[in-house]
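Page 42, continued from yesterday. The earlier attempt failed because a stray header line got pasted into the input along with the sequence. Redoing it now with the clean sequence only.
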Amino acid sequence: EITYGDWSSDVCSSDLNMWVTAMDFTPGAPAPVVFKIGPTGTILATYTLPMKEGPGGIAFDGVNMWVTDPGGNAVIRITPSGSITKFPLTEGAQSPRGITFDGRRLWIANTKSHTVSKFDMTTGSVIASIALNALDFPVAIANGNRKTKYYAPASIRCSVLSFSVGPRRNA
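This time it went through. Structure tokens are written below.
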């Protein structure tokens, strides 16, 4: 059991490990973190995130772990060695929440700008943003090759060749 504040944002897996983002809203509490948890439930590592507000989504690209920073309008990369790099988002991306990897690029759901952004991990920049309906506030995104439950006003499913935007699902 992991006890850290009162909020967990997202969970992701890589190989045999599970990664959990967490935030404690108690005044004076430490910064948000990412826990790397081994197959036996042991915390293998704790990474302090360079952000003031809570983390959004988390995704694994086969090598690195990526976390969205909605309040800082950025994406954070955690390398296998534990190095942490923050990439500010541009090109119409505001308040990144959900994030997924399609095999080549990261896709980011941006709540305030009502967009989905394609992110180049090599350059650390947004390649393009796709505008959604102004009434959609995307907060979750998932690779289209997985069955995923969505808890968001809008969900975005993407694959290497296509993407689709769908309504809220509470299943």
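Notes: The two ends are 25 Å apart (CA to CA).
Reminder to self: strip header lines before submitting.
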